[in-house]
Amino acid sequence: MATPAMQSILARPVSGVTARARFSQFTPCSYVPRLQRNAGMQVRCMAEDDQNKDVTPITTPPPTSQPISFPPPKPKVSTKFSDVLAFSGPAPERINGRLAMIGFVAAMAVELSKGEDVLAQISNGGVPWFGGTSIVLTLASLIPLFKGGSVESRSEGIMSSDAELWNGRFAMLGLVALAFTEFVKGGALV
Predict the structure, then answer these.
(1) InterPro entries, alphabetically (predicted)?
(2) pLDDT score at 169
């Protein structure tokens, strides 16, 4: 049989009074240990019958509070002509790098097949090919940028936007080095 003080302690959780305040009402000591909120609760049956000899405690695990993280918002990309084609904008170095990559491969392929150097290739009908390729690649590079797309959004794994920039830079250096070497040598490299 529970005492009236114990009954009042057990009946008060609904009233909003904290466990510490309830417990301190009935204990004369000044130190009251703080009860943990997420402590496991054990429920046991205290029947007099021998039916429940094998009693297993039921414990509730403490709830895990992991913050929900949302992906950062995508930065707005400017589609103004002056921003896209600015010196530090997304278009100039990419377009020049793409043209240099195609130009370097084409120059080396023609040099290996016909034995002509870069200046001979340009003077023997290479200007229209250069102009056509430049227009097509420039438009193909600018249209997604003017629609608000960014180069980094389609960058995955080994084919990243940084890899494209570095390949373009090396191709530009390769074209200049090829033309300079052929000029100093006085003919085709191969």
Answers:
(1) Chloroa_b-bind
(2) 92
Amino acid letter, 109: A
* Greatest pairwise CA separation for the chain in angstroms: 112
Alpha helices per DSSP H over 47-160 = 81-84, 92-114, 118-121, 127-146
Q: Which residue has the higher pLDDT, 186 or 17?
A: 186
Domain edges within the chain: 81-185
Predicted pLDDT at 174: 93
What is the per-residue burial (b if ≥16 Cβ within 10 Å, else e) of 164-180? beeebeebbebbeebbe
What are the structure tokens assigned to 2, written together? 């529970």
The pTM assigned to this predicted structure is 0.53
Q: Which residue has the tokens 């046991």?
A: 44
Tell me the sheet residues that pair with 156.
159
What 3-state class would DSSP assign to 156? strand
Q: Are 146 and 79 in contact (CB under 8 A)?
A: yes
pLDDT of 164 over the 90 cut: no
Say if CB 148 and CB 142 are below 8 A apart. Answer: no
| Strand, helix or coil for residue 159 | strand
Q: Are 175 and 104 in contact (CB under 8 A)?
A: yes
Report d(CA 170, CA 86) in Å as an integer.
22
Neighbours of 122 (CB within 10 A): 15
